[in-house]
């Protein structure tokens, strides 16, 4: 294969981050409420959410770029189900970030922690959507054989001239 295809390499980052964001957010929020961590620790959650947004966008773009290759191997309905789930997931990753930023800048601790809790709930919804994307993507690979699009050798180039193979 002459070119490196990025979608299979990239797709695991947003799924992993979709799991990590609520875990980290929940841990930081509990520690913040207990007085074990200062408010500024909350920015870790916001940075991780920003990374999730960027990686989901990149995964979506690489998927769009490689769609034609996989179309030749899998049923169109399965590919569309994955694509629609991915699009919803990518848009949904945007929702928690403004809440996370607001939680970090609100002066009143109780209000900031309440907004942080809201962003945690939003990140759990994103995780659920990420599961749907992963499930649809897994079906493409394991049920419909999408990996064959990446593993099938390219057709040999037509030979011109003599047919001997003594190279």
**Rg, please?**
22 Å
Task: State the helical fraction.
Answer: over 70%
* Number of E-state strands: 0
Largest β sheet strand count, sense and barrel closure = none
Q: Looking at CATH, which topology would you report? A: Four Helix Bundle (Hemerythrin (Met), subunit A)
Gap from first CA to last CA? 21 Å
Name the structural class: mainly alpha
Helix count, DSSP H or I runs of 4 or more residues: 7
Write down the CATH class: Mainly Alpha
State the assembly state of the protein chains: single chain
Low-confidence stretches: none
What is the 3D form? elongated
Polypeptide structure, described:
The protein has a single domain (7-151), classed as Four Helix Bundle (Hemerythrin (Met), subunit A) (Up-down Bundle), CATH 1.20.120. It is 73% helix and 0% strand. The chain has seven helices and no strands. It is elongated and about 60 Å long.
Quick synopsis:
This protein has helices spanning 7-10, 12-33, 42-71, 76-92, 96-105, 109-143, 148-151.
Give the SSE layout.
Layout lengths: L6 H4 L1 H22 L8 H30 L4 H17 L3 H10 L3 H35 L4 H4 L16
Helix pairs in contact: 2-3, 2-6, 3-4, 3-5, 4-6, 5-6
Give keywords.
Four Helix Bundle (Hemerythrin (Met), subunit A), 167 residues, elongated, 7 helices, mainly alpha
């Amino acid at each position: 294969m002459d070119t490196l295809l990025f979608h299979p390499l990239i797709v695991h980052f947003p799924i992993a981050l979709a799991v990590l964001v609520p875990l980290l957010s929940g841990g930081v929020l509990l520690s913040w409420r207990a007085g074990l961590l200062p408010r500024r620790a909350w920015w870790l959650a916001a940075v991780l959410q920003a990374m999730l947004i960027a990686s989901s966008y990149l995964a979506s773009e690489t998927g769009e770029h490689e769609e034609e290759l996989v179309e030749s191997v899998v049923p169109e309905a399965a590919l569309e189900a994955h694509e629609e789930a991915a699009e919803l997931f990518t848009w949904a990753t945007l929702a928690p970030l403004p809440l996370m930023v607001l939680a970090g800048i609100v002066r009143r601790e109780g209000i900031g922690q309440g907004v942080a809790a809201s962003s945690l709930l939003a990140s759990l919804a994103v995780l659920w959507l990420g599961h749907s994307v992963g499930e649809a993507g897994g079906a493409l690979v394991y049920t419909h054989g999408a990996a064959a699009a990446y593993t099938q050798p390219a057709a040999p180039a037509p030979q011109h001239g003599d047919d001997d193979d003594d190279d």
